[in-house]
């Protein structure tokens, strides 16, 4: 049965770079993203099936109402330098309209912030973020995945690359890493000062995740139990690049690193989540997931430990040993099958079409 949804474009902020929530894109064709580069096509398959999953109706008929835009527009995430008062006014008006109709409101928050409040006049509200801290997660707060293009389709001619089991596991990583030194410690202190002055609490410094990655990589490098395939960056791949050609080149290098590895380090960055986790599964590679009090999409119905080498943050000093043990416990057939299972898991649950196909599971 289709889920009946309501949204209204007149409550969407009319500014450059502002586009509707991906859930709504197939129904508002004038906002459809087009472009040559593959990462501009991450909603194509969802768009093809959206009308079989959802029906856009009036508010009175709707099962749920979907906030037209991403809530990070209001709080100033990423390209929004400061809180956007116009956005706050528009989205509050929408929320009040939904509350008056006694309908459930769905709000998506796509930025790094795990604890920024969504202060809206709706008692019956579902909030989706990229990350939460599991120990702080509130009722009706869920995680949605970072959607990526189908990497197998766009980069591997739709042929999943399967690796055969070797004596030693090959561990890959390509991404931003920061050393623990006086510069990074100064940035952490600056962040603590900001949090104390504005929120009267400390929080988790965004740079701490990149420092944690260095600890992980150091522990792998000093071990003879694994073969490492690391490509350390000094900046984020998709931020600060001069042009799309450079971004495309770095994207290929990122994917090649995964393809030529058995297991991929998936450790948080600025936010308490990992984009790389979903890209790893998409490519049929096995994530080494560093659990930093994380919440994962559909973890209320999916056993994520079936698809990952699961490492608690306190176990990082033993990470190479644990990965080697996991690898040795897999038969050659198990190792191949797990790659297929990781790919299937992404397609059925974590791609845009997979996530929205199962969206009703979040509803009572």
Q: Topology, pairings included?
A:
Blueprint lengths: L2 E4 L37 H10 E3 L7 E3 L5 H4 L9 H16 L3 E6 L15 E5 L11 E3 L7 H5 L14 E7 L5 H18 L6 H16 L5 E7 L10 H16 L3 E4 L8 H8 L3 E6 L17 E4 L6 H10 L3 H19 L1 H6 L7
Parallel strand pairs: 1-2, 1-3, 3-4, 4-5, 5-6, 7-8, 7-9, 9-10, 10-11
Helix pairs in contact: 5-6, 8-10
InterPro entries: Exostosin, Exostosin_GT47
Protein name: Exostosin family protein
Pfam family, one: Exostosin_GT47
Question: Could you please describe the fold and organization of this structure?
Answer:
It holds the Pfam family Exostosin_GT47. This is Exostosin family protein. This protein is 35% helix and 14% strand. With 364 residues, it is of the alpha/beta class. It has two domains: 127 residues, no CATH class; 202 residues, Rossmann fold. Strands 2-1-3-4-5-6 form a six-stranded parallel sheet. It has a five-stranded parallel sheet with strand order 8-7-9-10-11, sandwiched between helices. Helix 5 packs antiparallel against helix 6 and helix 8 packs across helix 10. It starts with a strand and ends in a 7-residue tail after the last helix.
State the gist of this model.
With 364 residues, the chain is α/β, with parallel strands linked by helices. It has helices at residues 44-53, 72-75, 85-100, 151-155, 182-199, 206-221, 244-259, 275-282, 319-328, 332-350, 352-357, and strands spanning 3-6, 54-56, 64-66, 104-109, 125-129, 141-143, 170-176, 227-233, 263-266, 286-291, 309-312. Helix 8 links the parallel strand 9 (263-266) and strand 10.
């Amino acid at each position: 049965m289709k889920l009946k949804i309501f949204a209204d474009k007149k409550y969407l902020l009319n500014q450059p770079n502002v586009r509707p929530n991906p859930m709504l894109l197939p129904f508002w064709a004038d906002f459809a993203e087009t472009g040559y580069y593959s990462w501009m096509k991450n909603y194509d398959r969802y768009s093809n099936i959206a009308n079989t999953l959802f029906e856009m109706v009036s508010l009175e008929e709707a099962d749920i109402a979907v906030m037209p835009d991403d809530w990070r527009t209001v709080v100033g995430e990423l390209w929004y330098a400061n809180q956007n008062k116009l956005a706050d006014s528009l989205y509050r008006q929408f929320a009040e309209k939904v509350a008056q109709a006694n309908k459930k409101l769905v709000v998506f928050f796509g930025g790094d912030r795990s604890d920024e409040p969504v202060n809206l006049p709706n008692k019956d509200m579902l909030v989706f973020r990229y990350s939460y801290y599991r120990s702080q997660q509130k009722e009706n707060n869920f995680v949605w995945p970072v959607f990526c293009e189908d990497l197998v389709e766009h980069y591997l001619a739709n042929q999943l690359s399967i690796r055969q089991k070797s004596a030693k596991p090959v561990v890959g990583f390509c991404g931003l890493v920061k050393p623990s030194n006086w510069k990074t410690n100064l940035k952490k202190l600056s962040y603590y000062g900001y949090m104390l002055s504005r929120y009267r609490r400390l929080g988790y410094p965004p740079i701490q995740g990149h420092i944690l990655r260095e600890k992980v990589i150091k522990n792998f490098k000093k071990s003879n139990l694994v073969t490492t395939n690391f490509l350390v960056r000094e900046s984020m791949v998709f931020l600060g690049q001069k042009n799309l050609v450079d971004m495309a080149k770095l994207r290929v290098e990122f994917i090649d690193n995964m393809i030529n590895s058995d297991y991929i380090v998936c450790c948080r960055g600025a936010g308490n989540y990992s984009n790389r986790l979903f890209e790893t599964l998409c490519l049929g590679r096995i994530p080494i997931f560093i659990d930093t009090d994380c919440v994962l999409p559909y973890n209320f119905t999916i056993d994520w430990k079936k698809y990952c080498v699961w490492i608690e943050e306190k176990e990082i000093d033993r990470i190479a040993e644990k990965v080697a043990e996991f690898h040795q416990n897999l038969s050659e057939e198990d190792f191949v099958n797990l790659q297929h299972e990781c790919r299937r898991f992404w397609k059925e649950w974590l791609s845009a079409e997979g996530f929205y196909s199962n969206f009703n599971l979040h509803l009572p």
